[in-house]
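Mods, move this if it's the wrong board.
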Amino acid sequence: MRFLNNLKNPPIIMSIGGSLIVPNGGIDTHFLKKLNTFIRKHTARGKRFFLVAGGGKTARHYAQAGEEVIGNVTNEDLDWLGIHSTRLNAHLLRTIFKDIAHPRIIENYDRKVTDFKKPVIIGAGWKPGWSTDYNAVKIADDYNGKLVINLTNIDYVYTKDPKKYKTAEKIEKLTWEEMEKLVGTEWQPGINAPFDPLATQYAKKLNLTVIITNGHNFNNLDKILSGEKFKGTVVVPFDINPGFYDKEYYFGKKGEYKRYLTPVLRRLLTSVVETYRAWLIKLFLKPKKLLDVGCGTGTLVKKLRRLGVDAYGLEISDYALQSADDDIKPFLIKGSINKLPFEDNSFDTVISFDVLEHIERTNIKSAVKETIRVASRNILHKIYTTDNLWITLFHGYDPSHLSIMSAKDWRNLFRQFDNVILTKKGFFKLPSIFESIFLLKKKQSL
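Not the wrong board. Structure tokens:
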């Protein structure tokens, strides 16, 4: 299997701080046993992992020994002591996961792994000037990773060192620009920062999402992988809020869609696509009263109403609502998918097109739950996934894409809801290379 080309199943990259493996220079076997159980549980469910080991106190002890003997150790030598400490820890991880791990530990990141069948790959330090945080980001760059989980010994990033300052405040979300201000821009061996400054700049360039959290809390790690609300600091490429969805976004300067088209062709294509969608919804779902969540300027709502559907739209962006045609504005409502302003079962059909991938992972399940709550019969979500290679290959970057997962991951998420059934029938779908559509049916309506 060529993992490099396996875009449908991007790996989960975990940077495991040395403070977890060797907190005081002695090995924490209790942590390693729990890590062993956790990784094996999730690989059995189809997940793939890169585990990058840090150096921890082992590196610091060797650095201190060198300084005590010769008085002054160069930064390059300090780096090499740290690198070899990470490699010792990585070999320990390789021993623990020997039956499910690739036989070679990544120590030279210029040599990419191309063929393997094992679900775990272990990484270590590489060369002076590059921390294991940087190596984790390099793996994301080389192997199509979308998420790096940085395991530390604290729950959150704080404004100050919480062990020294009682006034330190936890930070739940940062942009990469804010992280740069927090950690600076220069690398030093043994630096005590929530994320390496050089890795911060690299992750910013890749538009990567990084979660910094406590590696001892494995229940919390389960929540991260299942899209539930968790403890930890999320570092995102762009701070998504209603103000982001402005004129530049809707006209293509910030989003990935239709970047090669003129405004006239863009409007024409949008009209054709929405007409196509409206007819499919009318013919296959036969809705009487419908809600389009994340309706934008209401083009699809307008098409559906012309087909005799009592359709309404919900949108978070003031600009989009103001830009809607006057005749459709009465049927559009401002609101958020995470708290829909409707009673239970208010609509027989609820739909969303290219919305859920814009929701932060901590809010995905609550957003889906809301769409299910207000629907009495059908819930349809079209979502951009890693399976949709035509978007990956021919469209530009969209900074509001916060939760890019495979179609398999979305299916597993939808199956966690007891009151709906995920069905493969009941709606026309193009091949997965073009789109991923998920149709849920309320159980009481079957």
